[in-house]
Every structure is written in C-alpha cells, then in structure tokens.
Design goal:
There is one protein chain. The chain is built from 3 helices and 6 strands; from the N terminus they run E-E-E-E-E-E-H-H-H. The strands form 2 sheets. A 3-stranded antiparallel beta sheet has the order 1-2-3, with no helix packed on it. A 3-stranded antiparallel beta sheet has the order 5-4-6, with no helix packed on it. The chain is α+β, with helices and mostly antiparallel strands. Strand 4 and strand 5 form a beta hairpin. The protein has one domain.
C-alpha cells in the first residue's frame, strides 16, 4: 500500500521517494510511461527512485513515474510567468541597483 502525502501547493496526492543520493523526491503516485523517475520499494519498505540511463535501464521491478514538480499546476504556472514572484517573496533588484552605483 502506498503512503501518499499531499502537495502543499496544489493539494494533489504525491508519493515521496528517496533518490540514490539520499534526497527526497516527490513523484506523482500513478505510473506514467513518459516519466523519468524509476520507482521501486526496497527490502525495508522504503520507496526509492533513480533516473534510468542507457547504462542502467529500467529493471523489471521498477515503474516509471513523473516527478511532481513537472506536473504541479501551481509550479508550472509560476514557471510560465517569470516576471511574477510567489506570495511573500520580495524582489531585491532595486536595492541591489542602488548599492552598486558609484
């Protein structure tokens, strides 16, 4: 049984995995053949992920999933509007321009 969490931005279910580097990666809970994260459950029950390559292709026990950051509607919208900042973030550009004037 998958232990699902909820994305703080879009409220969709996500599955937290642990990468080969020991970092956490949120993926969409359903397998997606267009994804780029190979996900499996190891012997201790932890959900692990890695990026398949030509040298290490997808194994039979792994399923491809899409990283949630690529499908989160809130994140995709923020990336589409580069001139806008997220709520609660202040731009320091004006301050930096004043500081570097001769």
């Amino acid at each position: 049984m998958k232990r699902l969490a909820t994305c703080h931005d879009c409220r969709r279910p996500i599955l937290w995995t642990i990468t080969e580097a020991g970092r956490r990666l949120a993926v969409d809970p359903d397998a997606d053949p267009t994804g780029n994260a190979a996900v499996w459950r190891d012997g201790t029950g932890a959900v692990r992920s890695r990026r398949p390559s030509e040298d290490l292709p997808l194994n039979g026990w792994e399923r491809l999933h899409m990283p949630h950051v690529a499908t989160c509607p809130t994140r995709v919208q923020q990336l589409a509007l580069p001139g806008t900042l997220p709520t609660g973030v202040a731009s320091l550009d004006a301050h930096r321009r004043k500081k570097h004037r001769p």
